[in-house]
Every structure is written in C-alpha cells, then in structure tokens.
Amino acid sequence: MLRPWAAHWITAVLLCRAVAQYSSDQCSWRGSGLSHESHRRDVEQVYLRCSQGSLEWLYPIGAIIVNLRPNTESSSGHMAGLHVCIKPYTYSQGSHVYLEHAGDLRLLLAERDQAHGTVHCFSLAEGALFVEAIPQTDISRRITTFQYELVPSQGPGAHMYPFLHPGVVTCKPCSDEELLMAVCTSDFAGSGIFRGVASGTNGHSTAVVTLSRLFRQKSRVFAWGGARGRSWSGHVNIPLQCGVHPGEDEYLLTGSVHFGEAWLGCAPRYKDFLKLYTRAQKVGTNPCQIDTD
After folding, report:
1. What are phi and psi of 227, to 5 degrees?
2. pLDDT tens, position by position, 41-53
3. Signal peptide: which range, if any (predicted)?
4. What is the rounded average pLDDT for all residues in the chain?
5. Which segments of the chain belong to CATH 2.60.120?
6. Of 80-84, 183-187, 287-291, which one has max mean pLDDT?
7. Where in the chain is CATH 2.40.50.120?
8. Do the Cβ atoms of 147 and 51 come closer than 8 Å?
9. What is the pTM of this model?
C-alpha cells in the first residue's frame, strides 16, 4: 500500500525529471546533495551492476533510487534467487532507506538504526533501494553511506548465513553433493581445528581456527603463520544455535565471506570428507581436484 507521506516522492519518480547517474566502475557511487539542491523534487536514479560495492551520499537532499543488478546477463529465475545485503557504516546518517516496488515503500533501515552497522538482506525481486534524505537545517555533517553485496540464497552453506534467512537458520549437515561443491565453489575451503569460541553479536559467535591445509580463499581472511608455523589462522562466524566444539578433531571448513568476514558453511569431520572425496574420485564425479595430502 502506498503511504500518504510517500505520495510526493512516488509522483516525482513518475512525473518529474529524473537524473540518471552511472558509476564509472558500475560498482560504487559517490554523489552530493548539493548538486541536487536546485531540483529537490527530482528523484535521482543510480544504476550499479556489480556483485559488491558501496554508496556514499554527501549532504543528502531529496531522494535517490539505487537500482542493483549483477554484472552478467541473468535469467529471471536466477535473479529471483539473488538477495541484496547492505551494511551501513556506523557514521551513516541523514537518510532513511526503503524498498520501493510498484509505487509502494517499505522501511528497511531507519536513520537511527544505521549506527549499529547491522546487515540487512532482501530479495532482489522485491525492488530497488529508495534512499530519502531527512530534512535538515544543517546538512554539513550528514553522510549516508553503506556497502552492498549480491548474495545467492541457495548453495552450499547458504542456510548458515543468519542475515539471509532471519529466524530460520538451520544447522543441518550438508549433503554429499553439497560438500563436494562446497570445496570447489565456496569463498574459502581448508582443513583445520577450532581453537576457541567467543560470544559475538547479532546472534552469532566467533571461532578461532587454525588450518593445516588451505585449498582456496576468496580474500585473505586467513593469514599464513610463516615457515615455522606451517599453518593459517583466522576467525569464522557461526550462528549461535550451531555450536562447535574446540579440540583436536580436524574438520573440513568451508564457507562464505561477507563484508570482509568469514562465515562457516559446510563443516564435516575431515576424515569423513576424505572418504567421500575418495569415493567420488574413483567414479569420476568430483567437480574439482584438490590436494588432500
């Protein structure tokens, strides 16, 4: 339902001149409300085509619509399976963030909540981001800024990312097929042990891990311990309801990286994974090759 206070902006989207802004790299956008001040009733269109990036709106005035799309041609079915996750910087202020779809606005992130820096996710099919500046007498210190990522809602370990499916995180073991795919397609994959677990925030804990093998990592979330250490170390986030047990048991650790942090996905005992991998190797069903020695 269209809210009365939103009618002005929706009318502006439909009837007034909209200024389209394309980011030079199509991943991030930086703009200023000062250039928008002479036509406050216009709604500025921002188009970003990237899997991740950021937005920074200095001195926000009026409103902008942020249209997010992947940087490759996608079928409608694939698009429906994509989610957008945004994470505001803790100093972000000056605007409310809504979802806009077919003229309806739904509040996603109020200004007062942005200081928490909490991740919020929604389906790409739900619409575009509508960022509305809050009228201020002094805008000199106002900056609305956040990071975004396009995240598949399906795949190995996706059920473990709590912001993607709030309240319905499941700790079920991954299937054999999911395990084999996780080693090949996850943002990180390796074998190691849990050293300890510390309580975190927003419904998750943080585990300290040491890896003796590192098959792949998308970004450097695990650091090499040097010639003497002969291992990698780092931190992995885990939903609170999915407890882990620190000790000497070795696990296959796979997962995803979101906003620079590692999140655990499929994590069977390494000896069980080796049996599965050996069987798949014999019948030629492994999706990729790794060095398990």
Report:
1. -60, -40
2. 678 899 999 999 9
3. 1-20
4. 84
5. 22-152
6. 183-187
7. 169-283
8. no
9. 0.84
Residue 171: pLDDT band by 50, 70, 90 thresholds?
Answer: confident
Residue showing tokens 């300290």: 208
Q: How far apart are the first and last CA of the chain?
A: 59
One-letter amino acid for residue 44 of the chain: E
Mean pLDDT of 66-89: 79
Residue in 145, 177, 178, 144 with CA at minimum distance from that of residue 160 = 178
* Average of per-residue pLDDT across 10-15: 44
**How many residues comprise the chain?**
293
* Residue 152 token pair: 């598949």
3-state SS, the chain, equals CCCHHHHHHHHHHHHCCCCEEECCCCCCEEEEHHHHHHHCCCEEEEEEECCEEEEEEECCCCEEEEEEECCCCCCHHHHHCEEEEEEECCCCCCEEEEEEECCEEEEEECHHHHHHCCCEEEEHHHCEEEEEECCCCCCCCCEEEEEEEEEECCCCCHHHCCCCCCCCCCCCCCCHHHHHHHHHHCCEEEEEEEEEEEECCCCEEEEEEEEEEEEEECCCCEEECHHHHCCEEEEEEEECCCCCCCCCCCEEEEEEEECCEEEECCCCEHHHHHHHHHHHHHHCCCCCCCCCC
For CA atoms 221, 55, 99, 66, give the dihedral sign. negative
For 60-90, b/e burial (b = at least 16 CB within 10 A) is bbbbbbbebbeeeeeeeeeeebbbbbbbbbe
pLDDT-wise least confident of 79-83, 88-92, 270-274: 79-83
Residue whose entry in the numeric block shows the structure tokens 């200081």: 115
As a CATH number, domain 169-283 is 2.40.50.120
